[in-house]
Amino acid sequence: xxxxxxxxxxxxxxxxxxxxxxxxxxxxxxxxxxFGGADVERIxxxxxxxxxxxxxxxxxxxxxxxxxEFFERTQRERPEAWGxxxxxxxxxxxxxxxxxxxxxxxxxxxxxxxxxGAYPAVCRLLGGVDKVRFSEFNFREAPPNAGRGRQNFHxxxxxxxxxxxxPYMPVDWLCAIHYLTDVEPGAPAFAVVPRSxxxxxxxxxxxxxxxxxxxTPIFGPAGTCILYDTATWHCRFDGxxxxxxxxxxxxYARGGWLPSSLPQTNRYKRPPSPCLTDWNLFPERLALHxxxxxxxxxxxWNTAQCEWVxxxxxxxxxxTMPRGRQ
Length: 326
Ligand SMILES: [Fe+2]
Fold this sequence. Notes:
- The protein is α+β, with helices and mostly antiparallel strands.
- It has two domains: about 15-275, Jelly Rolls (Sandwich); about 275-325, no CATH class.
- About 20% of the residues lie in helices and about 15% in strands.
- It has helices at about 40-50, 60-75, 120-125, 200-210, 285, 290-295, 305-310, 315-320, and strands spanning about 10, 25, 35, 50-55, 95-100, 130-140, 175-180, 190, 215-220, 225-230, 235, 245-255.
- The strands form three sheets. Strands 3-4-10-7-12-6-5 form a seven-stranded mixed beta sheet. A three-stranded antiparallel beta sheet has the order 9-8-11, with no helix packed on it.
- Strand 3, helix 1 and strand 4 form a beta-alpha-beta unit.
- The chain is globular.
- About 40% of the residues are buried.
- The chain binds fe (ii) ion.
- The site of fe (ii) ion (FE2) has 3 residues, from loops.
- Fe (ii) ion binds near residues 154, 156 and 234.
């Protein structure tokens, strides 16, 4: 039986709300269901239907303390890595603070890349434990009194065959957003439009889904994890512009060739997902790890990574790369 999330919702489509930057104003008032991290089959069922799923209590108190301490320590010791200080980066102005590549210099984070709270579900959603590939890992913060960011609804990386392939699952990429601070009404909340992952525009989703279209903010205590298909329309809803929010974002890609085909040809196979960015780098200890399973996990190298490996992971080469140091 399919899980539905539409109960007790509010339709705000009046006047200018229909043209709002952050959607059409048809906002769900009830939080979507939260699953346990071990409940992988129910997570898969809900995700396949809706393009996202929420895992409650994904992180322990000790892990939350560690990661929040990491934010504070690295903002103090390496402010430039967060876009703080004199050279504040353009892309931070509307997105808050961001530490793009903390894995490069901090092995203390390695254990989080396959975190037991969400990783079993990630494996199920991407087609198996040997099919999951690492893409990106970053930290973000909306500082207290940061004002409003006005992030519009968008999707992340997508492939065109999502409109036609059969079956749709497994997805090409998925993102895990972990709340590291409590996200309650008034705080900036991650929001999705359920079942929007096969629409080219938000308006098309709005007009086609009709009564089934809901912009759905996701509230939850620190430790909540949201898994979403990168093709699902989403945004960070503005809060009151006063409250702080810290998040850890990790992207995973699908590895290996899949036999599933487009309907018009039985020769097409789905290749491993392309690299998500042209700048993201994997450190030597992970890219060339002695365990072949870890090497496979970190095997989706972009051309910048290939050049960095060829240089022997040279610091000078890294310094020429965008976000290589900052
Ligand atoms: Fe996004």
